[in-house]
Structures are given as structure tokens and as C-alpha cells.
Design brief:
The structure is a single chain. It is built from four helices and five strands; from the N terminus they run αββαββααβ. The chain is an alpha+beta fold and 134 residues long. Strands 4-3-5 form a three-stranded antiparallel beta sheet. A two-stranded antiparallel ribbon has the order 1-2. A hairpin with an 8-residue loop joins strand 1 and strand 2. The protein starts with a helix and ends with a strand. 16% of the residues are buried. InterPro entries: Tol-Pal_TolA. It comes from Enterobacter huaxiensis.
Length: 134
């Protein structure tokens, strides 16, 4: 009987504990599996946001007149290597002049390398909704 009570007490303690979480892992209890915030928005404060911000900054820095595109949008598909080398820049839709300027800038931009395999798996070949900076 004592062993059963100790087992119940131990299970209750484990289930109610604050979960152990690896970096950027989101879970609500100790027994849940990890989920990661993978929106990839430039404003995210995680490893995905950092990578997206680096890519956006690299493109903006390579544009000849970055502030001329305020309010413009361009949807593109980008394919990267793990070292940050851009393999493909495919325009899907958006303002033609802005998209053309981004395509030209992408040839000169120095993109950041991917430092995390999870981030690379999600963002290494993905569609991007680019917005001109104000």
C-alpha cells in the first residue's frame, strides 16, 4: 500500500512540474512534446524571426533606393543553401517594379547562413511576402 501511495505521489509531482524545455521549445506540461513557433515573421523574437530579419535586411541593404518602395509588396519563393547562398529567386506576384528591384538586389545581397537545422528545414525553401520599408 505504501508503494502505491508513493507511486501516485511521484506521478502527481512529475505531471504538475514546470516542463523542462529546450531552447525555443513551447510546451504546457512536462509530458508534452515540443512545438516550435515557426511563423518566420521579421518581428518574431525567436530563431525564425532572427533568420527572417537577416534575410530582409540583406535584401534592403542591396536595394539601390530602399525607401522608394514604401507600401509596395512582392511575393517570392526563395531557395537557399545552408550557408546562406541563394539558389532561386522566383517572383510569384506583387508590384512588378518592386519585385524586379528585389530580384536585382538578391544577386548582390549577402544573406546570413542558417545556423539551425530546424530553421533551415522550414525556411530554406519557402514563400516570402516582402514589404517595402517606409
Amino acid at each position: 500500500m505504501t508503494k502505491i501511495l508513493m507511486l501516485v505521489a511521484m506521478i502527481t509531482t512529475i505531471a504538475g512540474c514546470t516542463p523542462f524545455t529546450p531552447k525555443d521549445c513551447q510546451k504546457k506540461s512536462a509530458l508534452d512534446s515540443c512545438s516550435y513557433q515557426r511563423s518566420g515573421k521579421v518581428t518574431d523574437k525567436d530563431i525564425y524571426g532572427e533568420q527572417a530579419s537577416g534575410i530582409k535586411k540583406a535584401l534592403d541593404a542591396a536595394l539601390t533606393e530602399p525607401h522608394a518602395w514604401s507600401g509596395k509588396r512582392c511575393n517570392v519563393h526563395l531557395d537557399f543553401n545552408m550557408d546562406g547562398t541563394l539558389q532561386n529567386f522566383i517572383i510569384k506576384s506583387g508590384d512588378k517594379d518592386y519585385c524586379r528591384a528585389l530580384a536585382e538586389a538578391s544577386r548582390q545581397a549577402k544573406f546570413p547562413a542558417f545556423t539551425n537545422q530546424h530553421v533551415y528545414d522550414d525556411m530554406g525553401s519557402a514563400r516570402w511576402n516582402m514589404h517595402g520599408q517606409p
